[in-house]
Every structure is written in C-alpha cells, then in structure tokens.
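Appendix B.2, paired examples.
Example (i):
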Amino acid sequence: MQITFIGEKTINISEGQSILSASLDAGIPHFHACGGNGKCSTCRVLILEGLENLSAINKKEAFLRSKIPFPQRVRLACQSFIEKGDITIERIIKDELDFSLFLNDDQLEKKNQQLGVEKELVLFFLDIKNFTPFVDSYLPFDVIHVVRRLFFIFHNVINKLKGRIVETAGDGLYAVFGFDSTIKEAADFAIEASKQIVIELDELNEHYLQKYFFISFEVGIGIHLGKVIVGKIRIADKNTESIMGLAVNVASRLQAVTRELDNNILISEELARHSSIRFPTPGRTINLKGINQEVTVHLMGKPFK
C-alpha cells in the first residue's frame, strides 16, 4: 500500500502503521507537536483520494474533533491507518512559512519541535489604580521614573517567588506561576506575591511617592488557576511566548472587578483548592463579564482607600 504526498513523494506504508509513522520513516518532516498522541492536531492531513481506504475515526480523534470541527476529509495522521488500497494526501503544516511563524532560524531544522502544549498554571493579573490621572498630570520624566519604581517592585516580588511576567502595560501586568514549581507551590507563591506587592507598595507610597510626588497608588490583583495553551508565536524575527485560554480570561476579569467588590486581592475557588492556605469563610459566587459560568471567589485583600 502506498501514500502519495502531493508535491513531495510517494511512500510505502506497512499494515498497522499510521500515516504519521510512515511519513517520518520516509524522512518527511511531518509535524507532530504532541508526539503523535492525538492531542494537538498539528499532524492533520487533507485526504484528496482514497478516504474510503482509511481506518474509522478512533476515540482520540473523535475527542479532538469534538473540540475542533475538522472537515470530513481532514484526518489526524497519527490516528489514521490504511486498511486497503492507496491514498493521496497533502500535509497542512508543511512549508518554511508555517514553521518560521513559530521558530527562529536555528530551530527551523527541528521541525517536530512542540509549538503548543497544554499546562495547568496560575494566572496573575495586576492593575495600578488611578494611573491615568497620574499620567495626565505629571511630566513624562516623572511618569517613567515612577513607573520604573513600581515595576521594579512587581518584578522582584514575582521573580523571587518563581513567577514569570508574560506581558506588561503602562498600568499593569500579567504573570504566571507554575513553570518552575508544583501547582500547589505555584498557588501559594502567587498568593504570597500579591500580599508582598501590596505591603511593598504601601511602603513606597509612605516613604517616597507621597513625600516627593504627592501621590500614592493602589493595585487590584486577580488570581486564578486553570489549564491554558502555552506556545511560541513568531512576530517578525522574534519568538514571543503566548499563553491562552479561558483561565486567562477568568483571571483578567477577577482583577477587573476588584474595585466593584472593594477588595484589592481576589482569588478563585479553583486556586484556593490547590493552595495549602486554609480559608475560614466560604467564597462568594459572582458573575464575570464574558464568562458563561459563575465563579466563586475569595476576598484575600483589603478595601480600597
């Protein structure tokens, strides 16, 4: 039995061998980010001829199809086997542009390197309150000077507790915990980071910002735990780490309602369950904008001034 890869080559395939395995044996750089376990879809192929010659969709492929609506003629190469006759297919992710969107020049030869993986992480969003009036009222030098002082605190605390800042904006940041620790440690580290940031910010306000700039700042922090997709996105000539998923949105929305709930640190019940910290009172169930299900939160901080 044979497989013809359009624009590439025709290869033989043995009985019981998957399309992915046969293509790799033949030296075709067939992407398979999850290792051929039916979890990522990067090995999928378009069946041009011989669809009827393939094995039926198995449980792994069916599960992925329940999440991603593939056309009928698109199959996972790692979960598809030829049962009779020959087939003609085309790989979907196959050229240098596809790879270069994710990899740098040194990595282009490693075409089976993972693009994205699913991980359970702690998501940490912080917003500086009343930041816009400050920017509008002070000179550019003063604004940048103060912002540097603020982010110096944020970065040092998060980094010390094994967190990683993913994105920053003028008035806030987005960080994750769990890359270099267990999920239980990550939950504890994120909670501790929020407390330390508030303490150090209060000290900066009292001993520096109020004295020399006649201002003080507060922060709102939202923390959640959940599964996200982690991968590299190539923009121009630089790889940027991207972390996406519903859990990210939940953490961001929690931060957004800190003022509404009048508490500067909100953590989700999901994070509380994984933490070693015990909470004396039950959480509060709320609705978050753009999130279909209700979310239970714990108010870990203090009211805004």
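Example (ii):
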Amino acid sequence: MQPKDAIDVPNLFSIRGKVALVTGGSRGIGRMIARGFLEAGAKVYISSRKKDVCDDAAQQLSQAGECISLPADVSTAAGCAALAKQVAAREPRLHILVNNAGAAWGAALPDFPEAGWDKVMNTNVKSIFFLTRDLLPLLEKAASPADPARIINVGSIDGIKVPFIAENFAYPPSKAAVHHMTRALAVHLGGRSITVNAIAPGPFESQMTKWMLENFQSTFEKECPMRRIGSPEDMAGVAIYLASRAGAYVNGTVIPVDGGICIT
C-alpha cells in the first residue's frame, strides 16, 4: 500500500495528451522545445514565417509524434490573429503556448536603422502580447486550478546582463521587456489558472547564434561555469518541467538556462 503522501513522479512530469503551440518552432530553441514536447507525448503545432521551412520541419519532427505546421508571421497583430484563428479551427483548447519567435539585428550605433529596431521589437515583444491575447479563450478552456494552462515566453540572458557583443542594441532591451511582460501577465492571468513563465537561454546552437558561436564559442565556454554551451536536452528539459504538473505552482519566473553565465 502506498503512503498517503506518495508522489506519482512519472505523472508529475508528464505532458502526454496535451496540445502545444510553439512559435518559431522550425529551428533553434523552438525546435528543441517542440521535439521535447513530442517525445513527451504532446501534440505540437509549430509556426514560422516561411511556409516551406515550417512544413519541412513539421514533417521531420513528426517522426517523434504528431506535429502540425501552421505558418504565420507573428510580428504583426494581424498575423497573430490569423494564427490564433488557425489553432481555434483545429483545437477546442490549448494547454501550452510557447512564445519563442524572435529576431535580432546587428549594426554599429551610428548606423542602427529604425527598421531593424522595429523588426526586433515587433517580433520579440509585440508578438507575445497579441498572440497571448488572441489565444486566451483556448488557454482558459484547458486551464484548471490543479493543472493550469501554461504560457512559456522565451527571453534571453541578454535581457538580464549586458552582452559583450555590444552592436545588437535592440535585442537585449527586447528580451528585458519579455521578462517583465512575463511577470505582468503572470499576475493578471494567475486567477484564471494560467501560469506565465519565461526561459532565458544562454548560448545554444541556432541560426540566430551561428555567427556568434563561429567567432566566440570558446569565449562563452570559458565564461560559463559549466564550460560548455547548451544542448537540446537542456532546453527541452526546462520547458517540459514548466509545462508539466511539476511546474503547476511556478508563476512569473524567469529561469536562466545558461550554465551560470548570467551570474559570473
């Protein structure tokens, strides 16, 4: 006979049967999270701006589980509304929303263009607010006090500490905004049984970090107390934790996944 206080650990970390949407899910951090969710038994929709890239990624990821491509440009309010409409046409509820779509722009300070600033802020900040707003009805239908619906925003350690690669002026403040919007939404939505948390990745392999790692990977590894960059398992693990019953009482947090870089 199990004791009254026994904990069913396998079910505690299970997301089997849940429905998730991962924006920017065709590559990089988003793909790592999508793959982890699929391996853990969730049904996953991925979205990215380029249809052929999104479709191809979904086909490859379908080897691990049910993955559906929903191409969309979430950098505009209209794009967010269109994506939410596509999800609502296919699902009565949404258990997990991962706001991962992101952009960066590098230029020297005297030459930094308004178009670059706007692209980064629209993709990294505005998309999170409007897509969350538009998907709230589906998230509320999946929510319960014991097992809330989950919103996971992808920030960055660049929103916690100033990066040493300085000519990327819009990206760090955009991610700091993501972190604080996470806290604000967590307070507002907690009463609806929806948790809102953020993951702040350090260096991981992705298209966005390709140039940076080609030129500075050894520097990151020396700066990191763990002496390495992140792996897909590192990213999938924290996302699965936040999406599972194990993370049901975690709300309004920003979790650095960086091997300790942001505290050095």
